[in-house]
Amino acid sequence: METCELFSGTRSFSKVAEAQGHLTFCVEYDKQFTANLYADILTVKRKDLPKKIDVLWASPPCQAFSVASIGSSWCGSYCPKRVASALGMAYVLKSLELIKEIQKTNPDLIWFIENPRGVLRKMAFMEGLHRKTVTYCQYGDNRMKPTDIWTNLEGWNPRVMCKNGMPCHIAAPRGAKTGTQGLKGSVDRSRIPPELFEEIFKEITGV
Q1: In this structure, which CATH number among 3.10.20.30, 3.40.50.150, 3.30.1330.80, 3.90.1300.10 belongs to the domain 2-205?
Q2: Which is more confidently placed, 52 or 190?
């Protein structure tokens, strides 16, 4: 299969795709990471991406949608208060736009948009999109990190989410220096466990 990863960063998705023999194409703005196309996603057009894409994964920046930033970033009706919040919305809307463009030539495209559980699920433009929620500790990570994944892969049923206090993850109450919030850099915080992608590819390929 041919895959595309938007906001690829450390290439969590693409590394697993490559290990399973699939072709990958990564789009990233930050040149400290390896990518096929370095660009601000808002400037990317359909013609900039491979002609054939079977699976697309997008992990737009999550800072504006975090629970911790609700008061400072959003009005009561989830209108953005800050430029950063508006930009976060724009990144997700652009991802949806590119998905629709790709579907014009490949209606069988399988797509995913990932973001830690937070404000994004409240946005009107995400209504009607099929959403799954996972916890990373069920996929071999030591963090719970509840994460929403919107997708059109309806046959995929992720592992049952864990609950606070269960021993499968490090306890990380708000303000603690454990779990995701205890990781110093955004790079480490954004890593997605490979087992999650392995499960997804198994569902797609049947292997």
Answers
A1: 3.40.50.150
A2: 52
pLDDT digits over 122-134, tens only? 999 999 999 999 9
Rounded to two decimals, what is the model's pTM?
Answer: 0.89
User: What is the predicted pLDDT for the residue at 87?
Assistant: 96
For the chain, the structural domain boundaries read 2-205
Q: Please give, one letter per residue, the 3-state secondary structure of the chain.
A: CEEEEECCCCCHHHHHHHHCCCEEEEEECCCCCCCCEECCHHHCCHHHCCCCCCEEEECCCCHHHCHHHHHHHECCCCCECCHHHHHHHHHHHHHHHHHHHHHHHCCCCEEEEEEECCHHHHCHHHCCCCEEEEEHHHHCCCCCCEEEEEECCCCCCCCCCCCCCCCCCCCCCCCCCCCHHHCCCHHHHHCCCHHHHHHHHHHHHCC
pLDDT in tens, 30-63: 999 999 999 999 999 999 999 999 999 999 999 9
